Task: inverse folding
């Protein structure tokens, strides 16, 4: 699976707190993806997506 952070990110950091194996904060204080979503991290990545207050995270099996 792949994760993507779109331009709506406000840098709240919830995704990093929920799934630090996939997300990190940049120097610009917005989230970025640092790894593909492994099977072990799938539920945490989806939780990060669902928890994002501005719907900036997309987790998909087919996003390129």
Result:
């Amino acid at each position: 699976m792949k994760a993507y952070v779109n331009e709506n990110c406000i840098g709240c950091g919830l995704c990093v707190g929920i799934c630090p194996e996939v997300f990190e904060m940049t120097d610009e204080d917005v989230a970025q993806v640092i790894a593909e979503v492994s099977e072990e991290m799938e539920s945490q990545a989806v939780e990060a997506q669902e928890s994002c207050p501005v719907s900036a995270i997309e987790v998909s099996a087919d996003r390129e």
User: Anything to note?
Assistant: The helical segments are 14-18, 42-51. Residues 13 and 31 are 7 Å apart (CA to CA).
